[in-house]
Amino acid sequence: MKTGTKNILLLAGVVLLAVLPLLFVNAEFGGADGAAEEMIKTIQPSYEPWFSSLLEPPPETESMLFALQAAIGAGFIGYVIGLFRGKASKSKPQ
Hints:
Strand content: under 5%
Shape: extended
Radius of gyration: 22 Å
Order of helices and strands: HHH
Number of domains: 1
Number of helices: 3
Structural class: mainly alpha
Distance between the termini: 31 Å
Helix content: over 70%
C-alpha cells in the first residue's frame, strides 16, 4: 500500500473516531468539577467551600484557556522529543 493511501486512511480513521461518538452517543458532556461537586453534596450535604473564585470567566473563555494549556503542553513535549532526537542523531557516527 502506498504511503499516501495509508495517510488518507489514517486521517479518515481519526475523523471517524472524533465524529462518530458525537453523533451516536446521547449523553451530557460534563466536567470533573461538576461531578465532584455533586458527589460532595451526596456524601456531606452540609459542606461549605473554603473560598469562592474571585473571577470566573465565561465558559467559552474557560474552554479556550484549557485548549491553550493543552497546546502549550503538546508544543513543549514535541520540542523536548525533537531536542533529544537531534542530540541522538548528532552523536551517531555517519
